[in-house]
Amino acid sequence: MQFRLTGWTTAAIGAGALLPGTAGAQTIDLSIELPRMTVAEYHRPYVAAWLEKEGAAPQTLSVWYDVDKRGGEGTKWLRDVRQWWRAAGRSMRFPADGISGATRAPGVHKLRLVAGRGAIAAITPGSYVLVVEAAREVGGRELVRLPFRWTGTSATAVGKGSAELGTVSVSIKR
Amino acid sequence: MKLRTPILAMAAVVALAAPAAWAHRMWLLPSSTVISGSDNWVTVDAAVSNDLFFFDHRPMAAIPTVTQPDGSEGKVEHHAVGQFRATFDVHLTQQGTYRIAVVNEGVFGRYVLNGETKMIPRGTTKAQLATVIPAGATDVQTSEALTRNEIFVTQGAPTTTVFTPAGRGIELVPVTHPNDLVAGEAATFQFLLDGKPAAGLYVTAIPGGIRYRDKLKQMDLRTDAQGKVKITWPEPGMYWLNVTPNAPQEGRPAPGAAAAAPQGQAPAMGGVPSGRRVSYTTTLEVLAP
């Protein structure tokens, strides 16, 4: 019985439907474009995406860093994703289950995350800012801030970086 | 002439014994203050110079004390003293805030024995004072100094264990954590003198990079009734912060302040500062938003 219910829950979220057991769950679709650079030395950027809401602790959604470096050495440069490190990163442990992953190549990256389960807390009604910050070794750093309002049904926001980030968008559905 | 020679000689001795009183700015410059990961090193330059933070005058040779986030004593490694600067490394293995401090505590002074003026030996502590002044000494003049020069480095999230006051000299109590500073934001620090909030202390903050600009950009502040001072950082970078009970203009030079001219001092001082001398110096890193 318990097993079946879990199965149902997963299916329900996938279909965007709502069952009592999933009342707090929301789907977050993130799109992050990393521009292709013509530079002598290119390293994939460290990227963090997080949600800010006034009066609430920032919620990290995703962090891309050098997870495979020996001895956890990739964590040494997490602090270069400066605003995120101050807002949330410095009180987290790495690797962060369900949140951190490897760095990504230039291109458009689409992520589907579920809030209200696992590592990401449910999104309660209010004004939010989705922040995406990218910091590149021997390169620059840039933030894109996307304000939106969540009333409980759906919200979208789109923005664009000028150097380290291309188009960034967020779409949240119940 | 007979009188002037010994005074000059004494001034020279005191300059050696108490560099903080006469010299330039003393500073500790860490390679990094906001650090992620769990196994890192910081390296620190320690020097005395006019231009911040350029080592071009004297090294600060004292071996500092490291206090780890859990309150235990850490280790200074690879300490080396060069012509212009000393350097050393600290291995960070704990999460939280480390303190790296050079605290100079001592007594300076002189006495007259059989018509001859003698200096109290360098490195004398308050407790040893009675043993270094021989019986029959007259005209004993002493001054006590406690100069604290410390920096903070944080691996992971900032912690506050290392700020537990010792209750001696001037100490910093964070209202804003010194490893959580961002340009354009205001930071508040509280200063204690012998463990109690100290009102009216003179606080000087100077951004580094002096060599490449014409204006010093010095910020002069005073602590309020609670010993607090609020500083808004105009730009990111390393800042030198100096706290003294006396304004540099009032009489003797403040420790850590720009070079004083001993010739301009009243001859009665004889190169020996009177009373008690306390100061606090730190280097703060302010990050870009």
Automatic annotation (TrEMBL), chain A:
<keyword id="KW-0732">Signal</keyword>
<protein>
    <submittedName>
        <fullName>DUF2271 domain-containing protein</fullName>
    </submittedName>
</protein>
<dbReference type="Pfam" id="PF10029">
    <property type="entry name" value="DUF2271"/>
</dbReference>
<dbReference type="InterPro" id="IPR014469">
    <property type="entry name" value="DUF2271"/>
</dbReference>
<feature type="signal peptide">
    <location>
        <begin position="1"/>
        <end position="25"/>
    </location>
</feature>
UniProtKB/TrEMBL annotation, chain B:
<protein>
    <submittedName>
        <fullName>DUF4198 domain-containing protein</fullName>
    </submittedName>
</protein>
<dbReference type="Pfam" id="PF10670">
    <property type="entry name" value="DUF4198"/>
</dbReference>
<feature type="region of interest" description="Disordered">
    <location>
        <begin position="245"/>
        <end position="276"/>
    </location>
</feature>
<feature type="compositionally biased region" description="Low complexity">
    <location>
        <begin position="247"/>
        <end position="271"/>
    </location>
</feature>
<dbReference type="InterPro" id="IPR019613">
    <property type="entry name" value="DUF4198"/>
</dbReference>
<keyword id="KW-0732">Signal</keyword>
<feature type="signal peptide">
    <location>
        <begin position="1"/>
        <end position="23"/>
    </location>
</feature>
